[in-house]
Amino acid sequence: MPRTGALLRDLYAKLWDTFGPQGWWPGETPFEVALGAILTQNTNWQNVARVIADLKKDDLLTPQGLNLLPTDELARRLRPVGYYNVKAKRLRNFLEFLASRFQSSMEVMAECTLADLRPLLLSVTGIGPETADSILLYALHKPTFVVDAYTFRILARHRLAPETCSYEELRQLFMQHLPPDTPLYQEFHALLVRLGKTFCRPRPQCDSCPLQDWP
DNA sequence: CACCAGGCAAGTA
DNA sequence: TACTTGCATGGT
Fold first, then answer.
1. Is the peptide bond before A215 cis (omega within 30 degrees of 0)?
2. pLDDT by residue (tens digit) across A95-123?
3. For strand C, which residues in window 80-139 of chain A come within 7 Å by CB?
4. How many angstroms is C1' of C10 away from CA of A18?
């Protein structure tokens, strides 16, 4: 499929022309970005933003700060994001991972390569492929493509990928046809979400969708 | 009221 | 391997 690369670049250009730069990911520090990636699993970002703001108010947006909280106290603070017991445990697992391997420092973590870090992150219980790639791409600036529910939907509806397509297959579709360019991967994924939020819901309202007749 | 949101793990067949 | 289910709040 040598045409796929051209289609993806055309899709990117069209999204860029329509929506402009998205400036993702929201978050002031690499750790805040990683935290958001875990909390936003199957969850509206607005709920996540509220929890992060609340943690920030108490100066708890660091591994050191969160390490001091017992898991039940952590869960109480995570309540608005939903799945708070599950997510408190997952966050605890990530904090433990960061402490044991990288001195609780995202900067230390960033010194390792993408190839080394991805399997390590995936071995943490609670960090699946999308969360791992989000942390790698947006917190650590490693060129890995993030695939989310919108990406699946958009590519399937425009027949760029089969309906039944694994996460890894879709990730490879992008990475094999685009150069390993971190800003490009960041913008592309952000633009796909931007499109998806408005025009590619499960029950689509495709009137006025900018990709109405694409390709 | 129903449906959705920037998933994942664990259990089952 | 490929399904199914639990997890849970807040917005539309």
1. yes
2. 999 999 999 999 999 999 999 999 999 99
3. 80-87
4. 30
The set of residues, in sequence order, having a beta carbon less than 8 Å from that of A28 and lying 6+ positions away, is none
- Which residue carries 């694409």 as its tokens? A214
CA–CA distance, A142 with A128 (Å, rounded to integer): 17
For strand C, the positions having any atom within 7 A of a protein Cβ are 2-3, 6-11
Residue A84: which nucleotide is closest by CA–C1'?
Answer: C8
Above pLDDT 90, what percent of chain A? 91
Q: Is A136:A117 a contact under the CB 8 Å cutoff?
A: yes
Q: Residue A40, SS3?
A: coil
**Residue A21: both structure tokens together:** 């730069």
- Of the candidates A203, A187, A95, A88, which has an alpha carbon nearest to the alpha carbon of residue A153? A203
Question: What is the 8-class DSSP label of residue A183?
Answer: H
* Token reading at A48: 């996540």
Encoded tokens for A101: 């391997």
Answering whether pTM is above 0.85, one says yes
